[in-house]
Amino acid sequence: MKFIHAADLHLDTPFLSIQNFSKQLQNGLRKSTYSAATKVFDTAIREHVDFVLLAGDTYDNTERSLNAQEFLKNQFQRLKDNDVQVYLIYGNHDYYRNGFSAIKFPQNVHIFDDTVSTEYLTAHDGTKVGISGFSYYQQHIQEDRIDDFPQRENVDYQIGLLHGAQEAKGDYAPFSLDELISKGYDYWALGHIHKREILQRSPYVVYPGDTQGRNLNETDPKGFYVVSVVNHETQMKFVESSTYVWQKADIFATPEDTLDSLSQKISANLDVEKPTLFTIYLNNAQRLHEEILRSIERGDLLRYVQQDGPGAVYRIELIYSQEKQLDNIDQKYWDQTVDSVFDLDDIKDLDSKLYSLDIIRDHIEEPDFLANIKEQTQSIINKKFIGEKN
Question: What pTM did the predictor assign?
Answer without folding.
Answer: 0.83
